[in-house]
Amino acid sequence: MTAETETVAQPEATGIRTAAGPAAVGVRRARLGLAHPALLLVGIVLASLNMRAALASVSPLVGEIGASFGLSSTATSLVTSVPVLFLGLGAAVAPWLARQLGAETVLLGALLLLAAGILLRVVPSVTALYGGGVLVGTAIALLNVLMPGLIKRDFPDRAASMTSVYTGAMIGGATVAAAASVPLEQSLGGGWEASLAVWSLLAALAAVAWLPQVLVARGRTGRNTPAPVVAAGRDVWRSALAWQVTGFMGLQSLWTYVLVAWMPTIFTDGGMARSEAGAVFAFNNLLQVAGAFGVPLLAGRMRSQRPLVALVTVMVGIGYAGLLVAPVQGAWLWAAVLGVGQGGAVGLALTLIVLRSGDAATASRLSGMAQTVGYLLAAGGPLAAGAVHQATGSWTVPILLVLGACAVALVVGLLAARDRKV
């Protein structure tokens, strides 16, 4: 089934709707000269590269950022917690914005907002630092929520493989950002501000690449603003299965963002040099690409994804336990085990949204629910870890609490992995 046929055959909550049949849409696409699916793929990959880069680029520098403003551990944790909080709050409005403006237009706006937020974050002011985090989190939330619906709509027969592509690109962007943060700081000679500001260029590039999709969307409707769509379907908020998918999404996000915020600090607190801690963190992100790319492909070939839930959750648990027992001595090993587990978990969580949905409309609504609740839950992770660390003077209790979250994630994940539809 072609992307155009899928759009006409069933309205969905991403905000895109056609005003004519498939033939007319194809003519409009051809007239615009934008019909090649490779262009859509490039846009998806470039947008996905931005989904974590602006977050991962902060982690190796968070200690220096806190020191430059004289922040406590708890206040420093807000540098990473505020964006994650707005991943949840932004996700709540994403479906409504897409119905009003169209998913493609909202995605373009999100990329521009992301570039602006990154630049605001480096203004020499604590208010700007946190305010930029608000914009960054909101922008990434819009990208996160709308991408599964677009993939379900435009690649209905290859949803799992396309999910692996965009999650792999998402984590690949985080890997490069984590690895480059300290070297960029040193080479640019402008401190942490110059290092973070570089990533606004990646967001701007993705916005330019996404602009043709906005023109295609306008060509579908024959007007500047796509007509709003009211999608029929079941209320996902009343579905037990939807809540199970949401629970797994939230808990895997929690354990991931605790590491995004504090992994380099855990190593440096143990005596590791800051440059090596950044390298280990980058290695962790690099290994996430393998899990994020491979697990969705396997999930799409299985009726029940329970073995994959058990695999990735146990791997994350082992990695966290390693950080508790020998954080510096086994740093590279724990980073590898955690990386494959983390990447596999996020890829699986996003794939479950698609696989548990019967159509693109449900995928969009379930994505909005899972990421709204999930990221609101996850936002408390870095903040709580920082506060408990400050109160106890060690990382033992924070890590034990995350291990408890892993146990809960295993239970809800096994329920979400059953072969059912929301």
UniProtKB/TrEMBL annotation:
Where located? Cell membrane
InterPro entries noted in UniProt: MFS, MFS_Cyanate_Porter, MFS_dom, MFS_trans_sf
Major localization listed first in the record, in broad terms: membrane
Membrane topology of this protein: Multi-pass membrane protein
Keywords in alphabetical order = Membrane, Transmembrane, Transmembrane helix
Residue ranges of domain Major facilitator superfamily (MFS) profile in the record: 36-421
| Protein name per Swiss-Prot or TrEMBL | MFS transporter
